[in-house]
């Protein structure tokens, strides 16, 4: 019935001999439907467990109990929240564009599900006599599908902000579009080094190429860039500026309620799982077991066991997301843009040039060990010079904004120009009667 074959044997042969990946379309219809259903159920369960996981971990970090009422240890709290959202009244503001207002949550949730279809869960196995890979499907440009779907998801956020006819929602949608443009470019650049080393954009082929050493070791700078950019793509703390409760009420979903709001919530957590799974696939060997286990146990990467290693890596990355949310504060918007455009993109371009040069020289038969060492030294020196330069420029800017006060000079009045606090004698209107702030404070009407 359910039998295993040597790890990735059929998959590797198919990826090598058939670059169009037609082998993934030869499964019977019931097997394809079963894979799609299994991926859908896995994502829904992952969302429910991630919600419980996040609330329990952050509760422990903040010396709180966390959810512990619904089900054992509060495990059914996410399901209870989903039922509550489904039963709440669906309020649609009068002035919204109803068609776009309803379409926007769908555009956010559906691409999040599609992206996971190209993630490999394990090697080729036998299911009821049919040899099939534990993967929904694969493409010669599978990684680019994830980038395309993440770009489509942003349309849902932008349209939600625009159709709500609310300034807070519109600002949240515009922030999200600017943030995704800034960080998706750096994310795509972090993939280039992986493509150069693996010689393919197929996710199954990339996992096969990491059979001896994971790319997190060979391409650690690309791994760091991807981890930073995936936090920007997920719109979570410290990069949750599209929501920005302190200044935008709720951001792009301010006017949403009931199931429409739940779909945005669902899309956020599915993207969390997709980004973690993609990082596992590209840099952490995908479904392959870690070195101590794979060296001691010969069958660790065969049969159904690789699903366990994949899920463990996925959970660790989700924990990393939650850990950051409970630790870091929200950054300023200028810091967000500066990190994306002035740090991540130039660094990624320089790293790609270095990786391409090393690969070309290795193909020509040159010894690249000394070149790699010298390149690392040069990069470290340039990074140190850049850091010192930015610190010096930052100090000069602060001196220009806040000049030094002399011994006899008084501090400027922050309310003198009406910003950020209006002056005390500014008129306030209560009905037909005009009063001042001083009169209001003293009780005079």
UniProtKB/TrEMBL annotation:
Compartments where found: Cell membrane; Membrane
Predominant location category: membrane
EC code: 7.1.1.-
GO biological process: aerobic respiration
UniProt feature, compositional bias: Basic and acidic residues: 436-445
One MF term in the entry's GO annotations: NADH dehydrogenase activity
UniProt keyword terms in alphabetical order: Cell membrane, Membrane, NAD, Oxidoreductase, Quinone, Translocase, Transmembrane, Transmembrane helix, Ubiquinone
Pfam families attached to this UniProt entry: NADHdh
Entry's Gene Ontology cellular component terms: plasma membrane
Catalytic activities: a quinone + NADH + 5 H(+)(in) = a quinol + NAD(+) + 4 H(+)(out)
Self-association state and partner proteins as the record states: NDH-1 is composed of 14 different subunits. Subunits NuoA, H, J, K, L, M, N constitute the membrane sector of the complex.
The protein's name in its UniProt record: NADH-quinone oxidoreductase subunit H
Taxonomy of the source species: Bacteria, Bacillati, Actinomycetota, Actinomycetes, Streptosporangiales
């Amino acid at each position: 019935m359910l039998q295993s074959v040597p790890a990735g044997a059929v998959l590797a042969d198919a990826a090598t001999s058939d670059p169009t990946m037609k082998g993934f379309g030869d499964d019977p219809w019931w097997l394809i439907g079963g894979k799609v259903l299994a991926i859908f159920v896995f994502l829904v369960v992952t969302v429910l467990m991630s919600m419980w996981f996040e609330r329990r971990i952050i509760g422990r970090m903040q010396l709180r109990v966390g959810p512990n009422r619904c089900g054992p240890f509060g495990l059914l709290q996410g399901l209870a929240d989903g039922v509550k959202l489904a039963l709440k009244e669906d309020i649609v503001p009068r002035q919204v564009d109803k068609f776009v207002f309803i379409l926007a949550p769908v555009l956010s949730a559906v691409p999040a599900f599609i992206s996971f279809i190209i993630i490999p869960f394990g090697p080729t196995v036998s299911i009821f006599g049919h040899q099939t890979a534990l993967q929904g499907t694969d493409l010669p440009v599978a990684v680019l599908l994830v980038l395309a779907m993440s770009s489509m998801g942003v349309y849902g956020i932008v349209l939600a902000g625009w159709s709500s006819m609310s300034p807070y929602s519109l600002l949240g949608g515009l922030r999200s579009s600017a943030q995704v443009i800034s960080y998706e470019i750096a994310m795509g650049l972090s993939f280039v080094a992986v493509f150069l080393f693996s010689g393919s954009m197929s996710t199954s082929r990339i996992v096969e190429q990491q059979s001896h050493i994971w790319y997190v070791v060979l391409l650690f700078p690309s791994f760091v860039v991807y981890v930073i950019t995936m936090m920007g793509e997920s719109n979570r703390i410290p990069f949750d500026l599209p929501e920005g409760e302190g200044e935008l009420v709720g951001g792009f979903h301010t006017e949403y309620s009931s199931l429409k709001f739940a779909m945005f919530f669902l899309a956020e957590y599915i993207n969390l799982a997709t980004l973690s799974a993609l990082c596992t696939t590209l840099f952490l060997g995908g479904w392959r077991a870690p070195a101590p286990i794979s060296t001691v146990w010969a069958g660790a990467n065969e049969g159904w066991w690789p699903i366990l290693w994949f899920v463990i890596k996925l959970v660790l990355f989700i924990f990393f997301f939650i850990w950051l949310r409970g630790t870091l504060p929200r950054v300023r918007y200028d810091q967000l843009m500066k990190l994306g455009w002035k740090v991540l993109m130039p660094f990624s371009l320089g790293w790609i040039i270095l990786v391409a040069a090393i690969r070309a020289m290795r193909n020509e038969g040159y010894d690249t060990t000394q070149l790699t060492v010298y390149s690392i030294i040069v990069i470290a020196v340039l990074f140190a010079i850049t850091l010192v330069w930015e610190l010096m420029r930052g100090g000069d800017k602060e001196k220009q904004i806040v000049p030094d006060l002399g011994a006899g000079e008084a501090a400027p009045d922050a309310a003198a120009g009406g910003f950020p606090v209006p002056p005390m004698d500014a008129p306030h209107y209560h009905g037909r009667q005009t009063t001042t702030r001083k009169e209001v404070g003293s009780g005079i009407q």
